[in-house]
Specification:
single chain; mainly alpha
């Protein structure tokens, strides 16, 4: 039998890749986890990601068109369901909150007051509900066709936007029936809508990514949205929550940007006043921060979508 030459490496001398490949491996030397220097660290380039999303925009439109056709093709009332949902909620709110709760609508018809609040809420609710499960529902497409994964929740938001536009048509009819005219300050909606879109996109991206790994969230999501409906000034005014406390209003606007957005719709369209700029500004800043965090979370988790599904 030959003798083996055993050499001892001086303390502090690092093992190189060449030494590692030439040295005999034993069971005790086998690593229990990857070396830190080869751990996967994903660097996100926002410009590259947005450019890629833009390049695949036609796929997002195709997905949105497919979802619209699948939702209304065999429905007896078709696109009328997009209008009936906020209308039925308006009727229910009007019956309950005018007979029992006595909500102060500040001199305008409560039906109009409630419907203006329901428009942004219905868009948000529909986008989060369908967009939250968009990744799971599109796994066969996701695993066969390469595309930015965020296209799927974006397509769901586009479908919710189409429904919201149809619901806006009914708003004009309600104005006529209540003998009310929208104020010129309603042009401020061009400032309110981007805040609504940013907050909706943030919640939808985070929900769609987390739901892939936590399937129980699919059952909990409707309950959470129902709770959010009554925690948001949809059936009542924002002042009913904040009680005219500026400090609480600003804190609430940071936690729930839908509050100042819905209040802004009512202030501009119904009362001819500009939005509450401090509350809306804090809500917009909070939405941007949430969107950045949600998008980072989405891109971190998307590498495991195919494996988990």
């Amino acid at each position: 039998m030959g003798s083996e030459l055993i050499t001892e490496r001086p303390p502090g001398d690092r093992v190189t890749a060449a030494d590692a490949t030439s040295a005999p491996a034993t069971a005790s030397d086998a690593p229990t986890e990857p070396r830190p220097e080869i751990w996967f660290r994903r660097r996100l380039d926002l410009r590259t990601q947005l450019r890629e999303v833009w390049q695949f925009r036609e796929l997002a439109l195709t997905l949105a068109e497919r979802d619209l056709r699948a939702r209304y093709k065999q429905a007896l009332l078709g696109f009328a369901w997009a209008i009936l949902t906020p209308l039925m909620l308006m009727v229910a709110f009007t019956f309950v909150f005018t007979r029992f709760a006595k909500v102060d609508s500040h001199g305008v018809s409560y039906a109009l007051f409630a419907y203006v609040g329901l428009l942004p809420w219905t868009f948000f609710n529909s986008a989060v509900s369908s967009g939250g499960s968009s990744i799971v529902n599109n796994m066969p497409v996701l695993n066969k066709v390469y595309s930015p994964r965020e296209l799927f929740p974006l397509a769901a938001i586009a479908v919710a936007a189409v429904d919201a536009l149809l619901s806006v048509l009914v708003l004009g009819v309600i104005f006529l029936l209540t003998h009310t005219a929208p104020h010129v300050e309603g042009l401020y909606v061009v400032v309110l809508v981007p805040v609504l879109l940013i907050f909706t996109l943030a919640i939808t991206l985070a929900t769609s990514a987390v739901l892939v790994f936590l399937r129980d969230l699919r059952h909990a999501l409707p309950l959470l949205l129902q709770f959010a409906l009554f925690a948001t000034p949809v059936a009542y005014g924002l002042d009913a929550i904040t009680h005219n406390s500026r400090a609480f209003l600003l804190v609430y606007s940071a936690l729930n940007p839908l509050g100042p957005v819905i209040d802004g719709f009512r202030r501009t369209l119904l009362f001819g006043r500009p939005p509450d700029w401090p509350a809306l500004g804090i809500g917009a800043a909070s939405s941007l921060v949430l969107l950045a965090a949600s998008y980072k979370l989405f891109k971190r988790l998307e590498t495991g979508f195919a494996d988990i599904a």
